[in-house]
């Protein structure tokens, strides 16, 4: 294997292609810095595509007195909704009152704070519901629930949020490398010498950087080991697994449910990809390999049992059509229970006599990634004298250059411009690509112009678009991260698509 050095000197090399790494790369590139991001697998392949897919303040964190975290997250919710209205949209959540777990007054107090501490401007406020007056909302639930609270948060396509941050970073000059693992990092004469291994070509390359950012999430200690710094760093990461299951749609309306479990945990039931319901999450300390993180049988049963406490229709393990699990790299604050561990992020800088700083990113949640990136650049200001000020608060992500209220109008316009695209398909394209849907469809005059169909509206043209503009390399990256069309396809269609790609 060749080891080819490059004489290019980057201001910033970011290791890790999850939401924090891509957010930092985007912010830095937009400040005029020379940036490279390296990801050992695919963008969002790890934790960042395995969330509950919410942009939210975290109502349950109020119970742990994390008021600062909730306030910051609610403020970010407003910003992100403005900047990515194609992949983030408002959702109403119904919280049935379970007086055996928490009294109604305590829930009301929590929701009052939730409505008022984060500068809510766009989303509807909380209201109390008498469930017998709301047949659609009460129909799926067991009959003994009388009162519920309905509040607002936002849904997000988490993997696409990551990809769009990487895309925007690239459009602003950053270099994005996928399937490129960091296999070594050393300081020499005040400069980082970083070895990257291309997983596809098996070639090694050495690059230079003034600053190294460790945004590898659960793999944070692995990179510290590569940089021969593990012994000098205090171990402050707690690996907590969150798992989810997907079942056929449990109800017809567009609300999500927020359930309180008897063990003190909470659970969401969320409308998912038109025909399904997403149930999650668990909070379990993760102590096995990070290579193939999967839901356990115990977690699957826990989610089925927890949902069955609320829904009339029992949730059976045989109903599960898909599941996923991710490991959250939480900052270890010494909490006894995994669900109580803080979701605050911590940024730590290690340097060598004022040179070649290493920034380690601990913890965080997807909602606060943009603020984390801003704070990361602020911590590095002393080493980046040419960097321009922060800018991302009012900068739409690619395709999101419109107001959320305009989405229906844009769907209609897309159908008008491409009459062979029906409403459901147009809406699906708009929710993946926003205004970039026109770039994808281009000069197509008919369905035939989109090339080979693979099922579930996936066409050859969309595949080419993803490969050329979004670093998609294989079937999994297209069917389960850049889109969720794998859920809509049959096993035969998925196999045929994979064979076609190969």
Automatic annotation (TrEMBL):
InterPro entries reported for this sequence: DAO_C, DAO_C_sf, FAD-dep_OxRdtase, FAD/NAD-bd_sf, G3P_DH_FAD-dep
Domain Alpha-glycerophosphate oxidase C-terminal residues, every copy: 391-497
Transmembrane segments: none
Keywords in alphabetical order: FAD, Flavoprotein, Oxidoreductase
Domain FAD dependent oxidoreductase: 11-338
Keyword Oxidoreductase recorded: yes
Catalytic activity: a quinone + sn-glycerol 3-phosphate = dihydroxyacetone phosphate + a quinol
Any Pfam family: DAO_C
EC number(s) reported in the record: 1.1.5.3
Cofactor: FAD
Biological process according to GO: glycerol-3-phosphate catabolic process
An example Gene Ontology CC term for this record: glycerol-3-phosphate dehydrogenase (FAD) complex
Keyword presence, Transmembrane helix: no
MF GO annotations: glycerol-3-phosphate dehydrogenase (quinone) activity
Family: Belongs to the FAD-dependent glycerol-3-phosphate dehydrogenase family.
PANTHER family: GLYCEROL-3-PHOSPHATE DEHYDROGENASE, GLYCEROL-3-PHOSPHATE DEHYDROGENASE, MITOCHONDRIAL
Name of the featured protein: Glycerol-3-phosphate dehydrogenase
Organism: Thiothrix eikelboomii
């Amino acid at each position: 294997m060749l080891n080819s050095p490059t004489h290019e000197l980057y201001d910033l090399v970011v290791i890790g292609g999850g939401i924090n790494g891509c957010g930092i790369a985007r912010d830095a590139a937009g400040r005029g810095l020379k940036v490279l991001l390296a990801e050992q697998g695919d963008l969002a392949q790890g934790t960042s595509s395995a969330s509950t897919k919410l942009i939210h303040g975290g109502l349950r964190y109020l119970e742990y007195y994390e008021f600062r975290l909730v306030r910051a997250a609610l403020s970010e919710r407003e910003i992100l909704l403005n900047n990515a209205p194609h992949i983030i949209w408002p959702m109403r959540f119904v919280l049935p009152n379970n007086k055996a777990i928490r009294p109604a007054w305590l829930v009301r107090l929590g929701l009052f704070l939730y409505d008022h501490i984060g500068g809510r401007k766009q989303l509807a406020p909380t209201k109390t519901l008498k469930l017998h007056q709301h047949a659609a909302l009460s129909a799926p639930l067991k009959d003994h629930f009388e009162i519920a609270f309905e509040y607002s948060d936002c849904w997000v396509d988490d993997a696409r949020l990551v990809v769009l941050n990487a895309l925007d970073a690239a459009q602003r000059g950053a270099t994005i490398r996928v399937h490129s693992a960091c296999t070594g990092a050393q300081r020499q004469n005040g400069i980082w010498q970083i070895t990257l291994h291309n997983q596809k070509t098996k070639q090694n390359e050495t690059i230079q950087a003034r600053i190294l950012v460790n945004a590898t999430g659960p793999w944070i200690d692995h990179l510290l080991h590569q940089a021969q710094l593990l012994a000098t760093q205090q171990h402050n990461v707690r690996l907590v697994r969150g798992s989810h299951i997907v079942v056929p749609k449990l109800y017809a309306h567009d609300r999500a449910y927020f359930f309180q479990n008897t063990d003190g945990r909470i659970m969401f039931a969320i409308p998912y990809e038109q025909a399904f319901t997403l149930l999650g999450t668990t909070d379990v300390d993760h102590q096995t390999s990070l290579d193939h993180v999967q839901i356990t049988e115990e977690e699957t049963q826990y989610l089925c049992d927890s949902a069955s406490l609320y829904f009339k229709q029992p949730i059976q393990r045989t109903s599960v059509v898909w599941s996923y699990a991710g490991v959250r790299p939480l900052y270890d604050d010494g909490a006894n229970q995994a669900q109580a561990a803080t979701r605050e992020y911590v940024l730590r800088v290690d340097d060598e006599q004022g040179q070649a700083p290493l920034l380690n990113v601990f913890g965080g949640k997807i909602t606060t990634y943009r603020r984390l990136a801003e704070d990361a650049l602020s911590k590095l200001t002393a080493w980046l004298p040419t960097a321009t000020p922060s800018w991302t608060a009012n900068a739409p992500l690619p395709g999101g250059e419109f107001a959320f209220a305009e989405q229906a109008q844009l769907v209609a316009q897309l159908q008008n411009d491409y009459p062979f695209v029906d409403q459901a398909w147009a809406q699906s394209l708009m929710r993946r690509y926003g205004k970039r849907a026109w770039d994808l469809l281009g000069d197509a005059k008919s369905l035939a112009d989109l090339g080979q169909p693979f099922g579930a509206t996936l066409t050859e043209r969309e595949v080419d678009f993803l490969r050329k503009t979004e670093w998609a390399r294989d079937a999994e990256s297209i069917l389960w991260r850049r889109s969720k069309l794998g859920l809509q396809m049959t096993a035969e269609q998925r196999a045929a698509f994979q064979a076609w790609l190969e």
